[in-house]
Design a protein that fits this description.
201 residues, mainly alpha, globular
């Protein structure tokens, strides 16, 4: 499998979780131990802004890019047709986009601490999204929140007619933009159609 492929082997698929987990930990540690104490409230505010901002980025990417623009639409269609397959954004691509569209503009418009904090928050949001999306497709939900997110995503995958429920980690933006509509058809399982979800991580 190449660096820019959307379908991964198990090791390539796991690498995304490992690399983002390590990157978020390293960046968070850098902010906590090297960040000026006088600026901690500001650093925390930018980190929270990045984390909250991720939910809107997640919604927008899913709705307008993955379900709207080619070739992303075709790539994402493969995930809809085979939800158990290890399909996802290549780590090198997502990392480059975060660096180019979040870190660099924040650095140019602000300073190193704001850029790092904003990037840390957004990267943490992406990491939470990746784990949530994986759990939805491969794990049995153990909490009420996880069951609600799994059901909403199952409705997204199994919808008949207009697509809805683009939020994976949160339904907030679906409510705001009116895309949390009622199911118009049968609900297909998000897990393996031949049995219980497979635990991969």
């Amino acid at each position: 499998m190449g660096l820019l492929t959307t379908e991964h082997g198990k090791s390539g698929y796991r690498a995304d979780f490992i690399l983002y987990g390590l990157a978020a930990t390293a960046l968070g540690s850098f902010l906590a131990f090297a960040g000026p104490r006088a600026r901690w409230p500001e650093i925390e505010s930018f980190a929270l802004l990045g984390l909250a901002g991720w939910t809107l980025v997640e919604y927008g990417l899913h709705r307008f890019v993955l379900h709207g623009l080619q070739p992303f639409r075709s790539w994402h269609a493969a995930h809809h047709h085979r939800p158990q397959a290890l399909i996802g954004t290549p780590t090198i691509l997502s990392g480059a986009l975060i660096a180019a569209l979040v870190f660099m503009p924040a650095l140019l418009l602000g300073d190193l601490w704001r850029a790092c904090a904003l990037t840390f928050g957004l990267m943490t949001g992406y990491f939470i999204y990746a784990i949530t999306h994986h759990a939805i497709h491969h794990w049995r939900p153990r909490s009420e929140w996880a069951r609600r997110r799994r059901r909403a995503h199952a409705l997204h995958h199994g919808s008949v007619g207009p697509m809805a429920r683009y939020g994976v980690t949160s339904a907030f933006w679906d409510v705001v933009f009116g895309t949390n509509g009622k199911s118009r058809g049968p609900i297909r399982t998000v897990g393996d159609r031949t049995g219980e979800p497979e635990e991969l991580l």
